[in-house]
Write a structure and sequence with these properties.
Structural class: mainly beta
Oligomer: single chain
CATH architecture: 7 Propeller
Number of domains: 1
Strand content: over 45%
Distance between the termini: 29 Å
Helix content: under 10%
């Protein structure tokens, strides 16, 4: 059965919601962090969708460097990477499954598995909920894990090691898988590999926990593709390039997984010449606007998507009011954007103008140590 193309699983965010949820006043927001003096693991806030405000974050799971999170599509389970290079005495990162207490949102560790490579930085659950996919940045590999009936993770059934390099010998002397995203039809999984300057397409068989390499879309050498977002209706993939501070749009064939570059647009104003790296990318639910974060310029780039002519244009940039916005997310309604400033330990809320796509600070802010991921869950 073909799944709805409008169902999006994007770069670093997974949102569980229905149309009815848009009328609900409050949602859970789980926050992943880099742990240290100001953070101990995964935090939970309650998000007021009317006011655009987060409650003070509370620690719900103490775990090391849970820098990316994903929710099971039907079960009360949350998954997290452990962005580390040593787990149980072996040179690998970790991935964890947590049970969610439905009323309170509190987490209980179900189990952990080695991630199959070093420095895992991204993960996603396929649409059927049978398979967890992980990108290991350090080792440049991807892994696939069967999900048991209770949401626990079984041992990885396959690890695919990428090979090769690109032109920047400092950053691209080997592969660096930075994200893995199932496509909206759940037939393919796309991997952005920063070290190879490629978006690699794999056939996805969640029932068998199987990834089979198909083809690759090439990105401009030295650009460093980082995260991926799908347009809700236009069969287009948007890629934020970390090293080039740009967004590449690519035609996507959902029948074959084939990719073809359409356009690449800078995420920076022309007058800015200081060091910057791109980080997160998301598409507005209506499909009219694309957002990408700049670390250095410390802003959100607002790009207009002209669907009929399949073109992108940079409209403006908006300060995130902090340092190093490694992550941001749109709430499920598309009314609010939350920017997570890793180096200034803050999350700010911005109102999204539904006509222009522009952002306006709402005045809402919470403090939390090194926030780097936010996922939404209906209460």
């Amino acid at each position: 059965m073909r799944l709805n193309f409008a169902k999006i699983l994007t770069g670093c965010v997974v949102a569980l919601f229905t149309t009815a949820a848009f009328g609900d006043k409050t949602m859970f927001a789980y926050i992943g962090t880099y742990t240290g003096a100001k953070s101990k693991g995964i935090y939970l806030s309650r998000f007021d969708q009317e006011e655009g405000e987060l409650s003070a974050p509370e620690l719900v799971a103490e775990t090391k460097n849970p820098t990316f999170l994903a929710l099971h599509p039907t079960k009360q389970v949350l998954y997290a990477v452990g962005e580390i290079s040593d787990f149980e005495g072996k040179p690998t990162g970790a991935v964890s499954a947590f049970g969610i207490e439905k009323k309170t949102g509190k987490l209980t560790l179900l189990n952990q598995q080695p991630s199959g490579g070093t420095g895992p930085c991204h993960l996603a659950v396929d649409a059927t909920g049978r398979c967890l996919l992980v990108a290991n940045y350090g080792s440049g590999s991807i892994s696939a894990f069967p999900i048991a009936s209770d949401g626990r993770l079984e041992e990885s059934k396959m690890v695919v090691q990428h090979k090769g390099s690109s032109i920047n010998k400092k950053r691209q002397n080997g592969p660096h898988a930075h994200c893995i995203v199932p496509d909206p039809d759940n037939r393919f999984a796309l991997v952005a590999d920063l070290g190879l300057d490629k978006v690699i397409v794999y056939g996805l068989d969640p029932a068998q926990t199987l990834l089979s390499p198909r083809q690759a879309g090439l990105i401009t050498p030295g650009a460093g593709p980082r995260h991926i977002a799908f347009h809700p209706t236009n069969h287009v993939v948007f890629v934020v390039n970390e090293m080039a501070s740009s967004v590449t749009s690519m035609d996507y064939n959902p029948a074959t997984g084939a990719l073809k570059e359409l356009q690449t647009v800078s995420t920076l104003p022309p007058e800015f010449t200081e060091h910057n790296t791109g980080a997160e990318i998301q598409v507005h639910p209506k499909g009219n606007f694309v957002y990408a974060s700049n670390r250095g310029h410390n802003s959100i780039a607002i790009l207009k998507w002209y669907g009929p002519v399949r073109k992108l244009s940079l409209l403006a940039t908006e300060s995130t009011l902090g340092k190093n916005p490694r992550f941001f997310t749109l709430d499920p309604s598309g009314r609010w954007l939350l920017a997570a400033n890793q180096d200034s330990d803050s999350i700010f809320t911005f109102a999204v103008d539904q006509q222009s796509g522009l952002l306006k600070p709402s005045g809402a802010k919470v403090e939390i140590g090194s926030p780097v991921c936010i996922v939404w869950k209906k209460q």
